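hi! just following up on the protien thing from before. the input was this:
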Amino acid sequence: MNNKLRILYISILAGLSFLTCKKPFEPPILNNDLNLLVVDGIIACGTNAVTTITLSHTARLGDSVLFVPELNATVFIELEQGGSYMLQEQGKGIYISQPLNLNANNKYRLRIRTLPAKEYISEFTEGKNPPPIDS
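and the predicted 3d structure came back as:
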C-alpha cells in the first residue's frame, strides 16, 4: 500500500470514528430534583469580626441557572452557653452579622429557617479567627 492510500485510509477511519453515535453519560443524581440547601461560610471570631453566610440551592449541571439563592431566610449564630445573634439579609442569598466579639474557644452553631417553614441546625463547633488581610 502506498503512503497516499494509507493516509487516505487512516483519515477515513478517523473521520468515521468522530461520526459514530455516542450515548451521552448522565449520572443518576442529575435526574433527581434534590433542591438541597447549600450553606457557605464560617462563624468568624475575634474583635469586631463579621460573619458572612451564603445560602443557595443545588442545581442540575444542565440547568441554565446554576446559582439559586435562598431568599427571606432567618439565620442565627447561637452560642453553646446561651444567646444568639441574627444575621441580616443582604440579597442574593447573602446573610451578614453585625461586628461581633466572639471568642474562638467557645462553641457556636447556625440555626437557619427557610420558607416554607424548614429549619436547619448545625452542630456546635469552635469558631474560627479570620486570617489577616494581605496587601
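The two ends are 67 Å apart (CA to CA).
The CA atoms of residues 47 and 101 lie 5 Å apart.
cheers
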